[in-house]
Design goal:
The structure holds two protein chains of two kinds. Chain A is α/β, with parallel strands linked by helices. Helix content of chain A is 24%, strand content 26%. Chain A has a seven-stranded mixed sheet with strand order 1-2-3-4-5-6-7, with helices on one face. Chain A has a six-stranded mixed sheet with strand order 8-9-10-11-12-13, covered by helices on one side. Chain A is globular, with a radius of gyration of 17 Å. Chain B is an all-alpha fold. Chain B is built from five helices and no strands. In chain B, helix 1 packs antiparallel against helix 2 and helix 3 packs antiparallel against helix 4. Chain B is rod-shaped, with a radius of gyration of 24 Å. The chains are: A alpha/beta, B mainly alpha.
């Protein structure tokens, strides 16, 4: 079973990271899921693959009633992001799935009705959650051509999908980045290969630099906090991407 | 029909899917052979006409064999439609199994959550799917028996054609050759249908509830 860690709380407004499953088979990439709650509603960010559903579900259930999930936010279309969709819908068939318009007819292959999907336009949109407004920010081509991150202005948290992701070795997989220089070595190859566009990367770095971000939360690896957030943005800005030695 | 056994580690709906795919391949083979009989029967009709009064009986039987091939093709196309439905139903059951496995694990990890309730609802849906598959299995078995009856008749016609060929006077050699070909082809179809009859797919329905 995964563990839950509350990374922000202000009244009923809460961010919970669902992370690190010791029983996870090695052939499945490790993922982080994030639950944002406000009032009596919740939204689950990148709900994860079908095979990790039991671990994510059971961890989430310790914090929140899964049938009260109003929505899931899928940063993009990959199976580790949202192949569990049909299982979450069992708990609330009226739940919505926010995803780029580009994928809104592809991801239904994982499950859901026509009205399950809310197609996010390229420029992004506000996502309401019981009076709270979350912003879907464009992050196209990082890595998916239809890709969004989610920004919570009140909590000053940016969910950054695969940006900031690191494939951490056992024993160095803490929840937060503790030593940036050591950590970033585990992120470099991933970003060089997976991020397809230097132009898209530059735009993202410019956009995110203008936001107040205390926590930058990727879908894999550790969370960047405080000064490490800007450190990461600067590092990413300098990194040539879209490269493969073949 | 492929005699390769379904792998030992393949159980339940996975093995069933493999079996029904093999049944489908065998049915396709029979459809091809039935088409061949149609052409053979047409040639036999022309041959009988050339032989004249000496091959009147053979001509009648050739006509009947042509009707047989058309009946067999119609029967096989019904069987094919049922098989396509079966592939779909077995696939649904396979999906149900995975879904239920994951929900069961979630319920075990979070016993106080809604997972137990959702799992029970899911199991009701699964049972409905399993019942639909069991009904289709029975339908498929009946359709196969119908095909078998038609082939039995085809066998009788082919044997009678062999006898009639003997009265073909100057054409007896040609007529015998054609009727032997009929007999061989009908036996080939019979062999295919026998293999289909033996498929574990038709008895696996009893175990279908265990997969859920």
């Amino acid at each position: 079973m995964k563990t839950t860690r509350t990374i922000f709380q202000e009244g009923s407004h809460k961010w919970v990271a669902i992370v690190r499953d010791p029983q996870r088979p090695n052939h499945l990439i490790d993922t982080n899921e994030y639950l944002v709650t406000h009032g009596d509603q919740g939204i689950l960010l990148d709900p994860g693959g079908a095979e990790v559903f039991p671990a994510v579900f059971s961890a989430l259930s310790t914090e929140f009633d899964p049938s009260a999930l109003a929505a899931v936010f899928a940063s993009h279309q990959d199976p580790d992001i949202c192949s569990s969709l049909a299982l979450w819908l069992e708990f609330n068939p009226d739940m919505r799935c926010y995803i780029s318009w580009l994928w809104s007819s592809f991801v239904p292959h994982f499950g859901g009705r026509a009205d399950t999907f809310v197609a996010i336009p390229d420029q992004g949109m506000d996502i309401p959650l019981a009076g709270l407004s979350l912003q879907a920010l464009p992050a196209h081509y990082l890595h998916s051509p239809g890709n969004f991150h989610l920004y919570d202005q009140t909590a000053r948290i940016l969910f950054s999908g695969d940006v900031g992701a690191a494939l951490l070795p056992v024993g160095q997989d803490g929840l937060f980045v503790e030593n940036f220089d050591q950590h970033i070595r585990h992120a470099e190859a991933f970003h060089r290969r997976w991020m397809g566009s230097n132009e898209a990367k530059r735009r993202w770095c410019e956009r995110v630099s203008q936001l107040d971000v205390d926590l930058l939360c990727p879908q894999h690896g550790a969370i960047y906090r405080g000064a490490d957030v800007q450190r990461f943005i600067d590092w990413f800005d300098d990194l040539p991407v879209g490269i493969v030695d073949a | 029909m492929s005699t390769a056994p379904v792998p030992a580690d393949q159980s339940g709906a996975g093995a069933d899917l493999l079996r029904i795919v093999r049944i489908n391949e065998e049915v396709k083979k029979v459809v091809g052979v039935a088409f061949k009989i149609n052409i053979m029967a047409l040639n036999a009709i022309f041959l009988a006409k050339r032989a004249g009064t000496a091959a009147l009986g053979f001509g009648v039987l050739s006509n009947e064999l042509r009707v047989f091939s058309q009946d067999l093709r119609a029967c096989m196309s019904g069987l094919t439609a049922l098989i396509h439905g079966g592939v779909n139903d077995v696939s649904v059951v396979l999906q149900d199994i995975r879904h239920s496995r994951l929900l069961r694990q979630a319920a075990a990890l979070a016993p106080a959550s809604a997972a137990g309730r959702v799992l029970r609802q899911r199991e009701l849906v699964n049972e409905a799917h399993a019942r639909k598959l069991a009904a289709l299995r029975r339908q498929l078995k009946l359709a196969l028996e119908d095909a078998f009856q038609i082939v039995e008749l085809g066998g009788v016609l082919a044997k009678s054609a062999k006898i009639e060929a003997a009265y073909g006077q100057g054409f007896a050699g040609s007529l015998s050759q054609v009727s032997a070909e009929f007999d061989g082809v009908v036996e080939e179809i019979r062999g295919s249908l026998e293999a289909l009859r033996r498929s574990v797919f038709f008895s696996a329905g009893q175990a279908s509830r265990e997969w859920i």
